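S1.2 Input.
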Amino acid sequence: MHFDHVPVMLVEAITGLNLKRNGVYVDCTLGGAGHSEAILEQIGPRGRLVAFDQDPEAIAFARKKLAPYQGRVELVRANFKDLAVVLSQLNINFVDGVLFDLGASSYQFDNPARGFSYLNDAPLDMRMDPAQAVTARELVNKLPVKELARIIRDYGEERWASRIADFIHQERSHQTIETTGQLAEVIKKAIPARARRSGPHPAKRTFQALRIAVNGELEVLAGAVRSAVQVLGSGGRICVISFHSLEDRIIKELFRELASPCSCPKEFPVCACGKKKVLKIITTKPLVPGPAELKLNPRSRSAKLRIAEKLSN
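S1.3 Output.
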């Protein structure tokens, strides 16, 4: 097991968290443990970190990598939607910062056996948690054509979604689509040659859409971020790195909602909703990787970092 992982926007995220000596922090997306290690380095011997990941291989790798910080880090194999429950079980009422680095990890993409990549021929899987029942193979072979098209269109922002879904349906009526290579070939046939001449790999958007659907990534995001904001102490920071326009939109709108006071109609003479500002937005526009990082790590090109701070409880 080899995690060749370069943490995205490491300096910006660590700076954004505004780390306190001996503070308590949560890394909701452990991955290759790059962000977690940087946090632990700076929060001192009495600082504490709780790190989440659904992938047992990530947990096993981090256990070795973060061994020097034993006793200061709690590695939790769980979806970050369980944040509030886990912190309650650990008797943690408030934390000083929470980091989300969304999407699949480099290791998951680079390990052919996990079936995330269209660059290798492997079983169609795409599960971040190998214990969950639903795989990409299930969706590709069993979903109604209209639902498959909706997923590819909405989550992949793919203009040829309906055509791709039709071609998948034709293929699966003859034989089960078992591998990433098979699926990539079907997608390639579905997209007209003129549209394949420019832009990313023709299978990129469809694979992204299926990964998001398999793992329920967008469904759990808003709830998890709300939970994170709730457990932040006064002055605590939340940093979210997203790689997809839909993720970024969810975070942008949620931060804006939590940073807004009264939401009553303007004609109301007095406030009836009782809503108060919960967050102060630190990044009015998202931070993006600089030229040096883009050169070192091209996968960071779509990353956007948004930062907000909890106002007094």
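S1.4 Remarks. Strands lie at 24-27, 48-53, 73-77, 95-101, 232-242, 279-281, 304-310.
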